[in-house]
Amino acid sequence: MNAEIALICALATPVVQAALVMMFARPPGLRDVIHIGLSLFTAACAFYLAIAVANGETARVVLARPLPNVDLAFSIEPLGALAAAVLSGLGALHAVHAAGVVRAKQEKAPARLLAFIALSMAGVIAVSFSANLLSFFVAYQALSLAAFPLVAHRGDEEARPAARSFLWTLLASSIGLASASLRWRM
Known about the structure:
The protein is mainly alpha-helical. Helices cover 75% and strands 8% of the residues. The protein has a two-stranded antiparallel ribbon with strand order 1-2.
C-alpha cells in the first residue's frame, strides 16, 4: 500500500463504516464487528501514514476544485498525521466501548448512534489531513454536523436544546472566524 491509497482509505473508511453499520443493524453482533473492525482499519491506515510521513513520503488527494487555484484537498504532514494516528487509535478504543454501551443500555437506535460516531471520526480524520483553509473549513463543518446527532441522541427535553446550542455555537463561531480570516488574507 502506498501513502495515497492509505490516505484515501483513512478518509473513506469511516463513511463506509457508517453506511455498513446502518445496513447491517441486525444482528447486533455483525453490526458491532463491522464497527470495531473498520475503526481498527482506519487506525491502521492513520498509523501507516504517520510512519510514511516520518520516512519522508508525501501524498495529496484532490477531491474537487470549486474555484480556480483552490482545491478541496487532503495531504499528509507530520502534525496532521500524528493527530490522526492518535485520534483514530482512541477512536478504535471508543468503538469497543460504544459497542458495549449500546448493548448494556439497550439504546433505542444503536445503529444510528454508532453510524454518527463513525461519521464524526470521518470529520476528525478530514480535519487532520486538510491541505488548506477551505478543506479545513469544510471538514470542520462536517464534523460539527456529524456530532450534532450525538448530542441530541437521547431525544429528551434536556438533550434537544443542548444540541441546538451546540450546533449554533460551533457553526456561528466557525463561520465568523473563517470569514474574518478570509478578509484578513485579502
